[in-house]
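mind reviewing these tokens:
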Amino acid sequence: FDLLKSYGCEVKFQPFEVESWSRKTINVEIGADNNSLAKMKAVTLAHSPVNADITGEIVDAGNGLEVDYQANPDKFKGKIALIYLGVLPGSPAGTKSLHRSEKTAIATKYGATGVIIINTVKNGVLLTGTASVTGKLIPIPAVCIGLEDGLVLKEKLKAQKSKLNPFHLR
């Protein structure tokens, strides 16, 4: 304000409204049963619900693209979708990725109750961006986990023939 005014600009304050979101604490636990839960380093993605406490089966949604759901759309209803942020190695040539918010919207469309997004950056780096296409709160919680943790989780799902249950997110 003062700098612009010092340049001779006519400056005034105008009221405006903005919808905002604030990241709070998170607790993600994953295991085969309640006795084997292990905490996983994670961060909530922006515009997730203000409060969430879900438990459910994790289902691998691959790249999280529409095609990943179309083969078996009912597979994701009431489940937590595990989504790779980019394009997985071994994907068909020319596969294009979508923004994490679009991948979250697709998971929601197919009935997922939560989303775990695997970051593509090595060494456990967590992504802290938004999971909302509109900038408004989304109806399901979305969290990001590190690449290494995510790849281990994908392998566990494969070894257990598609389930790790429960998944707790608070």
